[in-house]
Amino acid sequence: MGKNKQKGKKTKTVFQVANRPMKMKHKAKAVTTALKHINAGKREKVESLNQMFSEVQRDLKSVSKTTEPPKKTQMIKEPPKEPVNVDNAAQLFSQL
Q: Alpha carbon of 51 to those of 48, 65, 76: distances in Å?
């Protein structure tokens, strides 16, 4: 008697897939060159910004050296013009 065999597609073994020759693709070169151009542009921008900020820091240092420290203003409290009449205030409060 014969055995039942599976009908349909057979599964490929690992060895058949691994033995296939690999095709070389050269798309990675375009990406790396584009990244190099982008990185170069970013470096230039960062260097120019660093230079601008260093100039601003130098200006601030020179300005802060020339100006005098701010003086504290003293608050002078003026005495009340009329002394408070406590007795009169108590009498008015009792009328309420």
A: 5, 21, 48
